[in-house]
Amino acid sequence: MFFRRGRARRARDAVADRVADRTDDLATALEAAREAIAKASTAAGRKGAELGKEAAVKGRKARRRGARAAREVADALPVPEPEQVAELTKRAADKLFPERARQRRAAGRRRRRRLLVGGAGLLGAGVVAGWLTAPRRGAETRQALKEQAAKASEKGWERVAEPSDAAGTVTPVGEQGAEVTPLHDGVAPRPTRTPPS
Predict the structure, then answer these.
(1) CA atoms of 102 and 174, how far apart (whole Å)
(2) Are the C-beta atoms of residues 160 and 194 closer than 8 Å to each other?
(3) What is the pLDDT of residue 113?
(4) How far apart are alpha carbons 38 and 45 in whole angstroms?
(5) Rounded CA separation 106/100 (Å)
(6) Span 40-72, pLDDT tens digits
(7) How far is CA 96 from the centre of its chain?
């Protein structure tokens, strides 16, 4: 029995040694794996940071290129006039709401009709007033125009021939009184006009 106990103890010690060796090997492998994982994660972090920087730089460049292209396209496009924008907006609204477009067109037609009827009424009233106030025949009309022209001409000549009290009027030579001294400032006195006969 004693012999068996010694053998069992040796076998147990041998197994314990093997387990300790394996445990040490596993601990060493685990430590090496941890170090490898730490190195890999650090390298991956560095690589990720580099890739992130590159991506950020490329993204900035792409944004700049896109903004430049958009600016070039915007500069190349003609700037629409406000009337064109209003017309395009109205067309789009007509497409979206056809009932409103029909109502608007009908209102415009009514407005134009009212203006046309009002203009025709004013024209008719003017024609009627002209017929009522005009002389009856062409010869009468000519005679009335001649009389009006003669009256206007006579009134005009009467105004010109009348002496006025304003400064600058010149009395005919020879009618000047003793106390009036004519001024000569280099301008000859104007003779009075007489109406044609």
Answers:
(1) 88
(2) no
(3) 95
(4) 10
(5) 10
(6) 888 888 888 888 888 888 888 888 888 888 888
(7) 24
